[in-house]
Design a protein that fits this description.
Elements: E1 5-9, H1 14-28, E2 33-39, H2 49-63, E3 67-73, H3 82-95, E4 99-102, H4 110-125, E5 148-152, E6 162-165, H5 170-178, H6 199-215, E7 221-226
Helix pairs in contact: 1-5, 2-5, 3-4
């Protein structure tokens, strides 16, 4: 099955936090979107890998995502090596996305920056015909390279290269984030507090979207960075 957008996250909840509004908006516009989580988030202070798998499935349903997989890379030890590159290449060739979204280029969690480099390099390698990978039925996959790769903003506040207006989708984004009940603020939880389990963190997710919207003359927006120059067909496409 071919998708328009394939979003990668080092952990379940990365995609929802970073670009949940963007992918929900794309789906409502008739685009197909898949999510690939690289790890199960098993080293997280709160919750378990099993709980997070259920939460990830619930969040995908809220956003309207039909395809969500987990590559079971070890949380905290996601390395950019041949073995991991080939697993990602297989997914890129299987789903043939036009656009790939991935973790921030550098961030508080060490897996985020490492995952960004891993995914971007795998996207390049996926276009090389002499790298052989197998798909369903052990048939050789066709080479495929996404047209563009964009990195969503996470913990660190950085200036985006562009933003996507998600004004009509902020509530869906926040609902999908809230699906991770084990990870984020819950006044009844007895679990240890973490930097992302506070009310302040959840407030900051919505505030960042509101602030990016304020700066771009809309209500809410999500920001992305690009490793290459961004072009438009017409200057009037810019807002």
């Amino acid at each position: 099955m071919k998708v328009d957008i394939l979003a990668f996250g080092a952990h379940p909840d990365d995609v929802e936090l970073g670009c949940g509004g963007t992918i929900s908006k794309a789906i409502h516009a008739g685009k197909t979107v898949g999510i690939i989580d690289l790890s199960r988030g098993e080293l997280g202070t709160r919750g378990t890998a099993e709980i997070r798998a259920i939460e990830a499935s619930n969040a995908a349903e809220i956003l309207g995502v039909k395809i969500r997989e987990n590559l079971n890379f070890p949380d905290g030890f996601i390395f950019n090596n041949k073995e991991n590159q080939l697993k990602i290449i297989e997914k890129i060739r299987q789903y043939q996305p036009e656009i790939v979204l991935c973790n921030a280029t550098s961030d508080r969690h060490i897996d985020h920056g490492k995952s960004n480099t891993l995914v971007r390099e795998a996207c390049f390698l996926s276009g090389l015909q002499k790298i052989i990978t197998n798909g369903a039925g052990d048939k050789n996959q066709n080479s495929w390279r996404p047209k563009v790769i964009y990195s969503y903003i996470q913990w660190n506040s950085i200036s985006p290269d562009f933003v996507v207006d998600i004004s009509g989708f902020i509530d869906l984004k926040m609902k999908a984030v809230a699906a991770y009940e084990s990870q984020f603020y819950n006044s009844d939880s007895q679990a240890p507090e973490t930097p992302i389990s506070t009310q302040n963190f959840i407030d900051s997710v919505r505030y960042r979207a509101a602030d990016l919207g304020r700066l771009t003359n809309t209500d809410f927006a999500e920001g992305f960075t690009s490793e290459r120059l961004i072009s438009v067909n017409d200057i009037f496409d810019l807002k």
